[in-house]
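Hey, resending since the last one bounced:
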Amino acid sequence: MNAILVDSSVWIDYYRPQKKSFAKETLERLFTRNAPLRLCPVIYQEVLQGVKDHEFRAIKERLLSYPMVETDLLTATDCAIDIYRQLRRKGKTVRNAADCLIAAYALCGERWLLHNDRDFDPIAEEFPLKVWRP
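The structure tokens again:
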């Protein structure tokens, strides 16, 4: 099984006990299967910047237990720029530019992406982004 990059939208849902989502349930199933889950720096940042102080250390340790995607930052950034500009030329706008960078990390390593964020839909329509579906 190829590595699965888990987007911040899934981690944020996971750490909200009252939140129910398909992506959260999928992540829980992936935990039980010991799936090869990955992070990238921007996902790590997005999750931790919104964590409550009393949860910060535990969540940070949990996230750091998963390998970081090893992709050159400039290569990923150039790919993200291409994604954004090509979509914009086609009249599609990604609301969060960081999502283009996350998609680039997935695309550069031909990794699956597990997400719960509609910004990835137009990217997956125009690029070979592999969205994880159980």
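The chain has one domain: 4-131.

Sorry for the duplicate.
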